[in-house]
Amino acid sequence: MASLCGLGRRGAAAAAAAALVFLLALASLPASASAALHVVGDRQKWAPSVNYTEWAARNRFYVSDWLVFYFEKGMYDVVQVRNETAYNHCQADDPVLNWSRGRSFAMQLNHTGPYYFICSRGYCYGGMKLAIQVEALPPPAPAPAPRPSAATAAGPRALWAAAAAALAALL
């Protein structure tokens, strides 16, 4: 490895050391949380005869998660209603949204609090409705405490000496 793109031996070693430092710094960053995708009703999808209360109880919903409703085209719809009263009485006359086209509907949960969904085509009275509570994303878990190695147990000077020896070996 006499040269790395014309950098020479010392330049290549410095570039390798810089890359190593960058990779170590990158590895030490906390993992970012990602949004979950919830298929409403799981395998049974958005359809009559599914207990959506039990389904919702098995899931936790956070801001930025996605709900996906899959349903039979022309048979069902997804209506987000404004409050628990409209949900309990299957009232779709003042919806937040109404989706009846296609075979699916996806929406991102963008705020904390309750969300209420019903099917306005008569199936709500048989239980085709969903109420969920969306929570704020929990803070990331703290990083585990590092276990002392032989170099760190000896103190910071030993750690720097080991790093300098590794860098000198590259040069």
From TrEMBL:
Start and end residues of each Phytocyanin domain: 36-136
Example of a GO cellular component annotation carried by this entry: plasma membrane
Function, as annotated: May act as a carbohydrate transporter.
Family matches, as Pfam families: Cu_bind_like (PF02298)
Name of the protein: Phytocyanin domain-containing protein
Gene3D superfamilies according to UniProt: Cupredoxins - blue copper proteins
Cleaved signal peptide residues: 1-35
